[in-house]
Amino acid sequence: MLFWFMCCLMAVWTISASDAESCSEIPAVDNSISVSKEDGEQILRTYLCIRGYHLVGEKTIFCNASKGWNATSPQCQWGHCPDPFLENGKFSVLQPVDVNDTVTFKCNEDYILKGSSWSRCLENHTWVPPFPICKSRNCNSPENITHGYFEGVDFTSGSTITYYCEEGYCLVGTQSQQCIDGDWSSALPVCEVIQEATKLTAQEQFEKEFLAFQETEDLRQTIENIMQKFKKHNLTMEEIKYSLEIMKAKAKMLKAKMLP
Ligand SMILES: *[C@@H]1O[C@H](CO)[C@@H](O)[C@H](O)[C@H]1NC(C)=O
Ligand SMILES: *[C@@H]1O[C@H](CO)[C@@H](O)[C@H](O)[C@H]1NC(C)=O
Ligand SMILES: *[C@@H]1O[C@H](CO)[C@@H](O)[C@H](O)[C@H]1NC(C)=O
Ligand SMILES: *[C@@H]1O[C@H](CO)[C@@H](O)[C@H](O)[C@H]1NC(C)=O
Ligand SMILES: *[C@@H]1O[C@H](CO)[C@@H](O)[C@H](O)[C@H]1NC(C)=O
Ligand SMILES: *[C@@H]1O[C@H](CO)[C@@H](O)[C@H](O)[C@H]1NC(C)=O
């Protein structure tokens, strides 16, 4: 308390000693303690509310001799910490809030609580832990994907949507997504172009060879042929893997088309 008193004395003295005319009118705030810092013709003024009151507005305001104060002074309002709030939920009401008071939170039906279900008003006028939010259990409308689309109109909790790609593209990632407590269950899939005509000629060759392999009985001979083709076209393991992925996707598409 003595410290604050000294500060105030200092503050009053500094300001009256300064010749900053437009800064001479120090905005007073009820139920507060304030400290001023002078730097040439500028004054910084910081307000702290006393116990049982909390600050609303700017904690620190600034005065420029030729322009005056940059904001109106704050206010100290009844209640040691700001009033609790929770959208789409309820909290135990305590008014006025005092130091060490605890508030508990509960969400309305169809909302889930994210964060702490309680909070406490500390000496420094803040609530710790911070207030939670109530999140809807239902999902936002799903995002579109480039060269693809989704099917499904129900976005409530537990429902499922399915992604498809346009002709000529294959889906990489998870095809179906479920709405689980407000979030879709996995990352969006992507639609990748199936072929790049110029780049993949060697891979097309490989695919042909692979299809031939599926039809032939002579396993050893076919494997040898394939290995030779790899060498001839200098295909890397990455490119071979890529080709296999594309064939897998094609086979999947075929299978999907055959299903009713
Ligand atoms: C006024 O100045 C203070 C100190 O520089 C700054 O913290 C505050 O954000 C300013 N307020 C406005 C409304 O510009
Ligand atoms: C006060 O404001 C004037 C006008 O914008 C500016 O020219 C001057 O530099 C400011 N003074 C200080 C000390 O910030
Ligand atoms: C608040 O609680 C703390 C720790 O439990 C205690 O040290 C402090 O004295 C309490 N403050 C008041 C104003 O009751
Ligand atoms: C208030 O005090 C708590 C606990 O000491 C601390 O975690 C928090 O950062 C403080 N808040 C402010 C704004 O100083
Ligand atoms: C997704 O695409 C559909 C149909 O093309 C459109 O109606 C909808 O607004 C799009 N949604 C977003 C989030 O872009
Ligand atoms: C394959 O690579 C070898 C050496 O790494 C090179 O000499 C040859 O020309 C390449 N063949 C093709 C078809 O790119």
Q: How would you describe this structure to a colleague?
A:
The chain is built from 4 helices and 18 strands. It has about 260 residues and is α+β, with helices and mostly antiparallel strands. Among the domains are: about 25-80, Complement Module, domain 1 (Ribbon); about 90-135, Complement Module, domain 1 (Ribbon), CATH 2.10.70; about 150-195, Ribbon (Complement Module, domain 1). Helix 2 packs antiparallel against helix 3 (about 220-235) and helix 2 (about 200-215) packs across helix 4 (about 235-260). The protein is elongated. The model is unreliable at about 5-20 (pLDDT under 50). The chain binds 2-acetamido-2-deoxy-beta-D-glucopyranose (6 copies). One 2-acetamido-2-deoxy-beta-D-glucopyranose binds near residues 40 and 67. This is C4b-binding protein beta chain. InterPro entries: SEZ6_CSMD_C4BPB_Regulators, Sushi/SCR/CCP_sf, Sushi_SCR_CCP_dom.
The CATH topology of one domain, please? Complement Module, domain 1
Instruction: Flag low-confidence runs.
Output: 5-20
The count of strands amounts to: 18
Strand order, sheet with most strands: 1-2-4-5
CATH architecture of one domain: Ribbon
Helical element count?
Answer: 4
Please trace the helix and strand order, writing H or E for each element.
HEEEEEEEEEEEEEEEEEEHHH
Task: Describe the global form.
Answer: elongated
The distinct ligands, each listed once, are:
2-acetamido-2-deoxy-beta-D-glucopyranose
Averaged pLDDT: 83
| Cα-to-Cα separation, first versus last residue | 81 Å
Please identify which CATH superfamily of one domain we are dealing with: Complement Module, domain 1
Give the biggest beta sheet: 4 strands, antiparallel
Helix content estimate: 25-40%
CATH class placement of one domain = Mainly Beta
Work out the strand percent. 25-35%
